[in-house]
Amino acid sequence: MLISQHRDGELIARTIGHFGLGSVRGSAAKSGKQDKGGGGALRAMVRQLSHNEYVGVTPDGPRGPRQKVGGGVLALARLSGAPIIPVSFGASRRIHAASWDRFLIALPFSRGVFVWGKAHYVPRGADADMLEQLRQKLERDLNQITEEADMLCGFPGQSGITRLDRTSHI
């Protein structure tokens, strides 16, 4: 899993480690800002994919904006030739963290569901216009499967936002 080098990322890396998942640390930096290890992380993920491993990326990045796909996942798919398979999760009992992304936390005794969409391929020769079209399509598909996961868990039409958002934060 691609995880930020930020101290919050350390908690996430340790948590997923308990489930046997590894991490690649780094994220994109805004132009002209401090290097956050994004280039090295991209190279490490391309290497993993070349060895028939899987990688996971949160496509809206470590700071958002929420539910907006960034260019990193497309660059990874273009360089590696691997498809992007959009996946979302829903839970019947949940709260959302009081963070920019409103991270979903499944509560005990919840029913959960994973929903995945069709594979997205990025041609190696994709130009800027094609990359933007592919980015928008992936974003629409991700938001659609998130809505589907919410619907399957009893939260229709709420796009990952529950009534609990207004009252239950951690």
Round the Cα radius of gyration to an integer and report it. 16 Å
Please state the overall shape, judged from the principal axes of the Cα atoms. globular
Strands side by side in the biggest sheet = 1-2
Structural class: alpha+beta
Q: What is the terminal separation in angstroms?
A: 23 Å
Order of helices and strands: EHEHHEEEEH
Q: How many β-strand stretches?
A: 6
Helix tally? 4
Percentage of residues in DSSP E strands: 5-15%
- The low-confidence parts are 160-170
Helicity level: 25-40%
Outline the structure in words.
- The structure is a single chain.
- This protein is an alpha+beta fold and 170 residues long.
- It has a domain at 88-170.
- It has helices at 7-17, 38-50, 72-80, 128-152; strands spanning 2-3, 24-25, 87-91, 94-96, 104-106, 112-116.
- β1, α1 and β2 form a beta-alpha-beta unit.
- α2 packs parallel to α3 (72-80).
- The longest helix is centred in the C-terminal third of the chain and has 25 residues, at 128-152.
